[in-house]
Amino acid sequence: MIDKLIWYFLIYAIIGYIVEVLYCSFGEKKLVNRGFLGGPWLPIYGIGALLVLIGTFEISFNFIFVFIVTVVLTSLVEYIGSWILEQFFKIRLWDYSTYPFNLKGRICLKNSLLFGLLGLTLVYGIHPFVKDFVGKLSEKTLSNGSHIIILIIGIDSTKAVMGMLSFTRLLELYHKRKVEIEERLANIGTTTQARLLIERLKEERKELLENLVNRSHSIINRFPSLKSRNIEKQSHLKALRERLKERQKKR
User: Could you report the per-residue pLDDT of 216-232, keeping only the tens digit for each?
Assistant: First the structure.
């Protein structure tokens, strides 16, 4: 049974990735990659799908109950996932503060209702076929496959966590050095030598930003609503997005 759940997790993580990419690409009118991990899967969708399937198993005869339970469960998963990631990385990977009827920017009514509709599609439309497909696999295939799935997701997750930690460290270093430069600029006089130093410091400030953009463009693209609780760091994220947009326009 555990092996089947692992297969379900992967399949729905992949389906969730496809849905997310299509939804975001349609809204932005261009192909947009999404997701915390490097591979074409979103674990939060896999976890959400499993919870929905388990939570609605006894009430699948009533689509209204299925819809309500799906909305509640997926909203909890998204809220808790947002909170955990923010506590760990000190930045918020998605933010719905601009959406009506949102809860602390972590979840919003619009997305919760959309997840409810996806839940109906999952329970009545998709899962019967997935269940049939997985059910036809041999015990050996299920067992070996589940081990491979755990290994691949584990490696991808480790790489993604290290990448995000590297980004947060880079952001912190940029912040500290930028503050130092701003303080020096504020205390420099107006002599010729001082003016030369001002130019060098401004150039260094620009290079710091370019380096941060070069090493973090993938994360910024994947999480366009990336947000920090620190006001100054939030301004750095805004500058990153603006610089990235400038580069994309020049291409």
Answer: 777 877 787 777 777 77
Question: What distance, in Å, lies between the first and last C-alpha atoms of the chain?
Answer: 50
The verdict on pTM exceeding 0.70 is yes
pLDDT digits (tens, 9 = 90+) for 50-70: 999 999 999 999 999 999 999
Q: 228 and 234 in contact (C-beta within 8 Å)?
A: yes
Q: Quickly list DSSP for the chain.
A: -HHHHHHHHHHHHHHHHHHHHHHHHHHHTS-----SSSSS--HHHHHHHHHHHHHTTTTTT-HHHHHHHHHHHHHHHHHHHHHHHHHHHSEES---TTSTTEETTTEEHHHHHHHHHHHHHIIIIIHHHHHHHHHTS-HHHHHHHHHHHHHHHHHHHHHHHHHHHHHHHHHHHHHHHHHHHHHHHHH--SSHHHHHHHHHHHHHHHHHHHHHHHHHHHHHHH-TT-EESSHHHHHHHHHHHHHHHHHHHH-
Q: What percent of the chain has pLDDT over 90?
A: 44
